[in-house]
What does this fold into?
Amino acid sequence: MSASPLKHNTYFDGQVQSIGFERHGRRASVGVIAPGEYHFGTEAPERMTILSGELAAKPEGGSWSQYPAGTVFEVAGKSGFDVRADRACAYLCEFL
Amino acid sequence: MSASPLKHNTYFDGQVQSIGFERHGRRASVGVIAPGEYHFGTEAPERMTILSGELAAKPEGGSWSQYPAGTVFEVAGKSGFDVRADRACAYLCEFL
It folds into this structure.
């Protein structure tokens, strides 16, 4: 397992989980958000692409927007955002 | 962790990992395939959508085809397929 270039991440008691990987020196992850509301902090800026389901997201100081599958939003670095899923929602997160 | 509706799956010593979830009673997973060649068997038919990177795939008795990000292929149930990734490749697998 230690030789795998993939990394399993788990947050909020397993309610959000992702698999991290690297492509051309850039980090990314694919993951799933179980129903609920969660807050994430960012170090690097992130681009979130919704793959399956729908996600509500609110950047720090901003307001809630709804993102169905196929849509994308970006989050500033050294910041944070809230997300809310009514059903399981799969995403691709790219670190910019 | 035990209450999470998400399931972390790991195959081939962690070289392929996925997060399984359910939406509207249908099972799906998002995952990443580290560089290498792997064989998977299927129970249910599967639809594979390539999210990031590129994947070569060969159904049982078929020939290799190349699937870049954004493309899709389906695999018959009670069957199997080979995949080959030159770099990390992220996918969405939907059980049909």
In short: The mean pLDDT of chain A is 95.
